[in-house]
Amino acid sequence: MAAFNDERQTLAQHREAQRGKWDNINPDHAARLRLQNRFRTGLDIARYTAAVMRDDMATYDADTSQYTQSLGCWHGFIGQQKMISIKKHFGETKGRYLYLSGWMVAAMRSEFGPLPDQSMHEKTSVPALIEELYTFLRQADSWELNHLFRELDAAQQAGDELKTKELLGRIDNFETHIVPIIADIDAGFGNAEATYLLAKKMIEAGACCIQIENQVSDEKQCGHQDGKVTVPHEDFIAKLNAVRYAFLELGVEDGVIVARTDSLGAGLTQKIAVSHEPGDLGDQYNAFLDGDEIASADDIANGDVVIKQSGKLVKVKRLASGLYQFKPGTGEDRVVLDCITSLQNGADLLWIETEKPHVGQIKHMVDRIREICPDAKLVYNNSPSFNWTLNFRQQVFDAWEAEGKDVSAYDRANLMSAEYDETELGRLADEWTQNFQRDGAREAGIFHHLITLPTYHTAALSTDNLARGYFGDEGMLAYVAGVQRREIREGIATVKHQDMAGSNIGDDHKEFFHGEAALKAGGQDNTMNQFG
């Protein structure tokens, strides 16, 4: 970011060149406006955050303890408050991103109302949310810098040179709230051309990283639901190409593509892959199709489909829907082939959708992938669809049982029960949960840990707590004790909600524009002053 004094000097020279026509323009004020709006367009953001993400990937390759994280956000305000909180508690935003979940767009942002995660929502709602998130993050920059500029004015008016110097340093070294967004494009919302067009909209809105999955667009299901249908590699590669072309067309050469495979839980495919010779990619895909060997044409009924599989004629199993069935137990092998193929065809990161959070399971697949692609790394979904408490308690139970430890005091099927919360098993399971991201980054190649829809759940939980008290016996105390008092004591900036929404910024702008005639909102009678 340009130094404040340098910007001020440059703008003063522009004003002087106008020979009096800009005498009402204060270079100091103009410089403040420039610094408060560092990113002029979404493409500026995409190029900046792509470089950030590439740097983080290189850092992780050198030291796996330097993994990255994000939380899914369904509204710009939620993303803004998340980044303000991170800066407040940790002093910097490095390694912390935002995740844009297709699930939450469908459930919370569609004009149709709440929808399941099946790509039924408007595709334009995805780039619209990216733009909204970055609008709120840019406003967070303006908000924080506005406070610094106000402190600078006070220090200069008081003649405090030491404080003035310190504040100028903080302004010149200001860290933006703008961070990478990993944006979910589902299965591409159509054919490769549709994927390309939507990817461009997402990149123009600011996305530096696009995640795409190998499901069929018009049969897309949430990764944690049944009925998932994958496509042959040739179809998925075409969509990887479409996203890359979109990045290159818009000048975001460092754009990141996350290739997600749902093959671990997908038992169906849309169509038989094209194969030109034994052992090629299409033939490898078709080798996973379930079917029955046939000896002659008499074994073929009307409408049956026959392929050559490992040198034998096989009648593949086709459902009434026209979809083809994979052989049971082939999910992991298909995942490994998917991941290797994606990395060899332009993907930068992998996403393996699993049915449980188990470091050993993920590591086993990644180790196989790394035999061919040594630098393979994952984005991993720490999904709320997992019952984390039950999963990790069962993992501890199974580990103890394998070690020969007496587990007779525990009912494996009922380990979710609160009676186990303070037991040795419950405490160890919580420790494993706490260490899951560190262990996964070190052992299983997980570069980025995300939670897809945490703020969906936190909004519901906090609203339930407030409603229970406010409409019950607590009345107004439910809000005062449960919300406002905590905001004050925990330093949550939204307690001054007028300021958070831009009131002080607007007052300063009024002074820029109107001078002494400015009618400000933040005067003596503003009740926001009650909060100090």
UniProtKB/TrEMBL annotation:
Q: Which InterPro entries match?
A: ICL/PEPM (IPR039556), Isocitrate_lyase (IPR006254), Pyrv/PenolPyrv_kinase-like_dom (IPR015813), Pyrv_kinase-like_dom_sf (IPR040442)
Which SUPFAM superfamilies does the UniProt record give? Phosphoenolpyruvate/pyruvate domain
Note describing how the cofactor binds: Can also use Mn(2+) ion.
Where do the catalytic residues lie?
C222
Provide the catalytic activity annotation: D-threo-isocitrate = glyoxylate + succinate
Which stretch is the leader sequence?
none
Residue sites binding Mg(2+) per the record: D184
Matches recorded under CDD domains: ICL_PEPM
Q: GO biological process: any one?
A: carboxylic acid metabolic process
Q: Where is this region: Disordered?
A: 1-25
- What superkingdom does the record give? Bacteria
Q: Supply one GO molecular-function term.
A: isocitrate lyase activity
Biased composition of type Basic and acidic residues is found at 1-22
> Which positions in this protein are listed as binding substrate?
S101, G102, W103, G223, H224, R260, N381, N382, S383, P384, S385, T452
- Protein name from the UniProt record: Isocitrate lyase
